[in-house]
Design brief:
PKD domain-containing protein; 3 helices; signal; mainly beta; five-stranded antiparallel β-sheet; single chain; Immunoglobulin-like; 40 strands; seven-stranded antiparallel β-sheet
Length: 537
């Protein structure tokens, strides 16, 4: 009796165990790995542009990979690691452009990067272009006096046995050639003032402002990225002697301390400055008019051709309109030339330009930069009919970006997003946080054809252009600048303020044209400026 009961219990237990096991198999989740190609390149932020003998780390962090192979050129590069590994290192000892290719085979048709639609293949070949730059090396340099009419005068020796005498207040223009594409001239000028410079033209200007002073000359020619530099030193280069030309006003600007600087053509007699001879009028962005007292005036110790004005408890802000008047009769140069009077001279704001500081191709002069229309597609997938650099119009340098598209069609604005690349990577500029993270964006647009009135179904607004800071999350701060009703065959300057609420170390710019017009538009874009902006509190 007990034996039959034990057997019945054992059968029930066995059936329960089998049912439990079947349930576990049926409920066990199946993990499906997507086929998704994602690469990480250590120098991608620098557009894969490096110096000789530097290395780059290449990492394949893709999912669903069945096999891979890193393919390096047979000559000019060194592969460190197994070419079938997920991560390898390449060393580049020779100048030039080098193609590194990753061959991948996936389980299924593969997605690439941020694309939302899989490619129609499970085999991908991705090519990364690495640019290896030569070291910066100065090859030739000469100097000429700049005449009052802007033409070049006498050449000044770069290898003088004794200092070359030049008129006090002279500006010298230096013209140079260099290997390695230096873009910034800095260094030590021993009290002289470095003025404008153009890496494109290979020129920079230096102003010599102190009477009887002898100047050495030690410029540094620098390529910020990848960093390389070369230095020239000339001892006892020039000596300033008395000038026969009149003393003139050059400009009125703010300095980095947000104070007024009145700059003349040559060094000033410090004992001839009188604060009572200057007045300052400020019109704020809100329309308020301020006439603060000039509480102090003195020759700027950093620039002897400038009068530094202290105004009662006030600083100069970027959104101020500032007018300065000089009504005195005693201000003079160090060689006793009398300063001219002037009334309501407008202050020119001087702020750091992030694009120039980062060697960004802001004026479309570099042939290394490429432009892709309809990119990113979600921002504006309509590809322009014409997207090319052109010398037909320009405000800075000799080139601009020509953009054109035919009449509106469909519904909603025909938006064209345009991204900029160098060596296959986004063209970026550096950003550093400061006290307010505000920027003033300005750019020039030549309207050859404005596209006409808005077409039916287009949304009713004018064709417009805008430039985005990318990588800002949802905070794009679009500022559309309409040109659909502007007069044609004219240049216009558009500007807007950006608050960088999601700061990064680097950004790239995306141009966007939203076309709604019944006709073709043709514009030329040039001279993008992105300057620090300090609004009045």
């Amino acid at each position: 009796m007990s034996t039959i009961k034990d057997l019945r219990f054992s059968l029930f237990a066995l059936i329960a165990l089998l049912l439990s096991a079947c349930g576990e198999d049926e409920n066990k989740p199946v993990v499906k790995v997507p086929s998704h190609s994602v690469l990480k390149i250590s120098q991608a932020a620098n557009e894969n542009i490096i110096n000789m003998n530097q290395h780059i780390d290449f990492a394949d962090v893709s999912q669903g990979v069945v096999s891979r192979e890193w393919i390096f050129p047979e000559e000019g590069t060194i592969l460190e690691g197994n070419p079938e590994d997920a991560q390898v290192r390449g060393v580049f000892p020779q100048v030039g452009e080098w193609e590194v290719t990753l061959h991948q085979e996936f389980e299924n048709n593969a997605y690439v990067g941020t694309e939302t639609t899989a490619r129609e293949t499970n085999v991908l070949d991705t090519t990364i272009i690495v640019t290896v730059m030569p070291a910066v090396q100065l090859q030739t340099i000469k100097a000429n006096i700049v005449n009052l009419d802007g033409t070049l005068g006498d050449e000044v020796s770069m290898t003088p046995e004794t200092p070359t005498e030049i008129p006090f207040g002279s500006v010298l223009r230096f013209t140079y050639t260099a290997e390695g594409n230096p873009t910034v001239v800095a260094g030590e000028f021993f009290g002289a003032e470095l003025l404008e410079q153009s890496a494109l033209d290979g020129t920079f200007d230096v102003k010599y402002v102190t009477l009887d002073a002898t100047y050495d000359f030690a410029p540094v020619f620098t390529r910020p990225q990848p960093n390389s530099s070369d230095t020239l030193y000339v001892a006892n280069f020039v000596k300033c002697v008395r000038s026969s030309v009149p003393l003139t006003l050059d400009k009125v600007v703010n300095d980095e301390d947000r104070k007024v600087n009145v700059i003349f053509s040559r060094g000033l007699n410090a004992n001839s400055v009188n604060k009572e001879d200057f007045t300052v009028k400020i019109t704020t962005a809100a329309g308020a008019i301020l006439t603060p007292e000039v509480t102090a005036a003195a020759v700027n110790p950093q620039n002897e051709s400038a009068v530094l004005l202290e105004i009662d408890g006030e600083l100069i802000y970027t959104d101020d309109d500032v007018l300065v008047t000089y009504s005195g009769t005693e201000l003079e140069s160090q060689d006793a030339a009398i300063a001219p009077q002037f009334e309501d001279e407008e202050l020119v704001h001087v702020e750091d330009d992030l694009l120039k500081a980062s060697d960004y191709n802001y004026s479309f002069e570099s042939s290394a930069t490429s432009y892709v229309g309809g990119d990113p597609a979600w921002l504006g997938g309509f590809v322009p009919d014409i997207l090319e650099t052109s010398t037909a119009q320009a405000t800075d340098g000799s080139s601009s970006l020509k953009i054109s598209r035919g009449p509106f069609s469909g519904s909603g604005a025909n938006a064209s997003a345009i991204s900029t690349y160098v060596a296959g990577a986004p063209h970026t500029f550096n950003f550093t946080e400061n006290e307010n993270n505000k920027l003033l964006m300005k750019y020039d647009v030549f309207v050859e054809a404005n596209g006409g009135s808005p077409a039916a179904g287009s949304g009713g607004f004018e064709t417009n252009v805008r430039i985005h800071l990318s990588n800002k999350g949802g905070d794009w701060q679009e500022a559309a600048h309409p040109f659909g009703s502007l007069d044609e065959d004219q240049w216009y300057t558009f500007e807007n303020v950006i608050s960088v609420n999601n700061p990064l170390d680097a950004f790239n710019l995306i141009i966007k044209v939203a076309h709604t017009g019944e006709e073709t538009y043709v514009i030329y874009l040039d001279n993008i400026q992105l300057m620090r902006f300090y609004p009045r509190p």
